[in-house]
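User: Show me an example of a complex going from sequences to C-alpha cells.

Assistant: Sure. Here are the input components:
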Amino acid sequence: MAISPLAPPAFPDLPVIDGVRFSSLAAGVRYAGRKDVMLVDLVPGSAVAGVFTRSATRSANVLDCQAKLGGDPFGPAAIIVNSGNSNAFTGKHGDGSVAAICAAVSRSLGVDQKRVFTSSTGVIGERLPHDRITAKVDELTASLSPTGIADAAQAIMTTDTFAKGAGVTVDVDGKPVKIAGIAKGSGMIAPDMATMLVYIFTDALIGQPRLQGIVSALNQETFNCITVDSDTSTSDTLLVGATGTSGVDVSESTAFVTGLHDVMLDLAHQVVRDGEGATKFVTVNVTGAADNDDARKVAMAIANSPLVKTAIAGEDPNWGRVVMAIGKSGAIADRDKICIRFGDILVAEDGWIAQSYTEEAGAAYMKQPELAITVEMGLGEGKSTVWTCDLTSRYIEINADYRS
Amino acid sequence: MAISPLAPPAFPDLPVIDGVRFSSLAAGVRYAGRKDVMLVDLVPGSAVAGVFTRSATRSANVLDCQAKLGGDPFGPAAIIVNSGNSNAFTGKHGDGSVAAICAAVSRSLGVDQKRVFTSSTGVIGERLPHDRITAKVDELTASLSPTGIADAAQAIMTTDTFAKGAGVTVDVDGKPVKIAGIAKGSGMIAPDMATMLVYIFTDALIGQPRLQGIVSALNQETFNCITVDSDTSTSDTLLVGATGTSGVDVSESTAFVTGLHDVMLDLAHQVVRDGEGATKFVTVNVTGAADNDDARKVAMAIANSPLVKTAIAGEDPNWGRVVMAIGKSGAIADRDKICIRFGDILVAEDGWIAQSYTEEAGAAYMKQPELAITVEMGLGEGKSTVWTCDLTSRYIEINADYRS
C-alpha cells in the first residue's frame, strides 16, 4: 500500500528508555511473513496507566486491561500486542485467548499475570488463533532489547501506511526525563477515546494514581480530539508505562506534563495523517461558542461531515457545507454572528459571504495539504480544536474490501 | 447523470387532486435549459400543514414557512419552489428574496402573501437571483394545470437522478379520498427531520390543526427514519395541502392516516433509493433494545457508519462492523445477548459468530440490491427501523465537485 502523502519523512530517533525492552516477530496470526506480535517488558516498580475505548462491545483484551489497571503496582510488567485479529466479539473464546497469552508471558518473563497487559487489533469476530502467539513467547523473550521500539511499531500496524513514533526528553529540575511512544491507527478512528493502540514509555518516577490522572486529562485534548471517520473501535487502548529508572520524581512537574502532552498530540496527529485514503490534514478551530461543549459539538460536526470532507478532498472551498454542519451540530448558533475563515482568509461573516472573499482565493488555499477551518460563533467563550482528514474514494476502496 | 440502479421503473400515475394545479418552467436560476421552478395553487379553504428542518442555520424560506403555518387558514394558498440555489446563509438578502417572490405570487394569483409558501434548494451561501423567478411568475400562473405534477417533480430536482412521486386513493366510509405527493432529495439526507423537499396533496376535508398533528406524527416514522450520509440540510421542508374538495371528512379516518403514511414512506424510500452513489437499499431493524430510544440509537449508528456502509458497497458480509456500530451507539448492550441476522441468515449470537453461519452464505446474500440487517438486542421491548444506502466512490465523486 502506498504511504500516505501526509506521512512524516521518516520514523523518528526515539530516546531509549532505561528499564523498557522491546521485541517483535512474525507469528502468522493472519498473514504470513509480516511482523505481527510485539512484546514489551518493564522493570519492577514501573507504574502503568491506561485509557480505553468506551464501546459497549469492546474486546476481551480491553476488559482484561481495565480490570488489571487498579491492581498491585509492584513487580515487573509486560505488554503483548498482536495485529491481524482484534479478538473482539469472540464470546467466551476471547477471554480464554487473553488468559492463555497472559499465562505464557507470565511463565516466560516471570511477571505476575495481573501485570501482563494485552491488546489485539485487526478483524472483528473471528476467533484469535492464540496458539500461534503463545508458541512464540519464549522467542520474543529471548530477543528483548532496549532499542527494539521501531520494529515494535511496525508489528502493531494494520491498514497503517507508516509506523508511528514520537518522543521527547524534558528537563525536570535540571535532570533529563525521557518519553517515547508508538501508535497504530488509520481507520475506525473517532472521538470517543483514543481510537487506536498507543504505547508510551518514560523513565520518570511517578506513582500510578498520579500518572493515571495526567494521562486521562491529556487524553481529552489529544486522542479524543481526532476523528477520521466517526467510527469507534472495539479495541482502543492507550497504555503509559513509567519505569522510575531516571530517579527523577515528576509528580509535580509541568515540564513532564507538557512533554507527555506533546508526545501524545504528535502520535494523535500521525494517526490522522495516516487516515485511510487521506490527502489533507485539517485543523478545525471553533471559538466564541456558548460553552466548550457547544464548541466541541460544532468542531466535531464539521470534522465528521461526509459533505465537508468530500469537498475538502475535491479542493472545493465549499463553506456552505461548513454552515450546514454548524446548523446540524445541536449547538446554539446565531446565523448572523457566525464568522468563518479558511486559513487567514475571511470567508463569511454577518450571516453571509464576506465582501472581501473571492472564490479564487478560497480555491487556491484548498490546494494546500494542510488546512485550517476556523469558526467564530460570536456568542461566548467556548472553544475547541479537533483534527481530521478528508474523505476520498480511496477510503471507500480500502474499506469495501479490507477483509478480502 | 446515470439513473440510480435502485430507481423505480417509471414515475407513477398519480391521482389527480381536485383543487390543486401545477406549473413549472426553466427560469435559469443556476443552469440554463432545465426546469427549475414549480408553482402550485390550492383552492380557497385548503388546509396546509408542514414539518421543517431543525437546523440552526436553516434557510430564510424555512423560517418564513414556519412563521406562516400558524396563520389564517382561509383563502387560497400557493407554493413556489426553485432548485439551483438554496437561499440559505444569504443574510438579510435571503429574507428579501423570499418577500419578493411571495409578493409576485400574491399579485399574480390573488393569494394573500401569508398563504404563499416558498422553498429553495441547491447551493448554500450564494445570493438567490430572485428576479429571474419573479419575472416568470405570470407565465407560471398562466400554465397552471391539474395534471402538471410530474413536470413539477422534475423542476425541484438537484442531484436527484429520478423524479419522485407517490399516490394512493383510500376508501373513507365508502367514498374515495385521493393523496398524491412529490419529493426531491439525494444527498445531505439525515435523520433529524424530513431532510429534503416534499409536497403532498389530497382532496380530503380536514382542519389544519388535525392535519398538522397527523403529518408531524407520521414524519417521525417515515422521513425521520431515513439517512443517506448523516448530514442535515438547511432547507428541508415537507408541506401537505388538503383541499377538502372531495367533501369527505377524514378527521377520524384511520384509512386516511394509513394512506398518507404509505405515500410518505414511499417517497422517503425513493429518496434513499436515489442516495448519492447508492447501489444498495438497506433496511436496518433493531428489536429487543432497552427502549425505543436505544433501538433508534443502534439503528442509526449502523445506518450512518462509514465502515458498515463501505462494507455493504463492497458486498462484504462484514458483521464485525455491525458489532462495532452497536458498541459505539451509546445504547445499553450486552455482548453475549446480541443476535445479528443478514436477511434470514443467522450471523451472530451468544456473543460470537453463529455455529450455522458460513461466509459463503453471507457473501451470496450481500450481492442482492435490497438488504436487511436485523439486530436483536435481547434486553427489552425497544424497537426501531431505519432505511439507508451504501457508501460508494460515486458519492465522493459527486460531492467532491458538486459546485463546479
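The lines above are the inputs; the final block is the predicted structure for all two components together. Residues 281-400 of chain B form a domain with the Ubiquitin-like (UB roll) fold (CATH 3.10.20.340).
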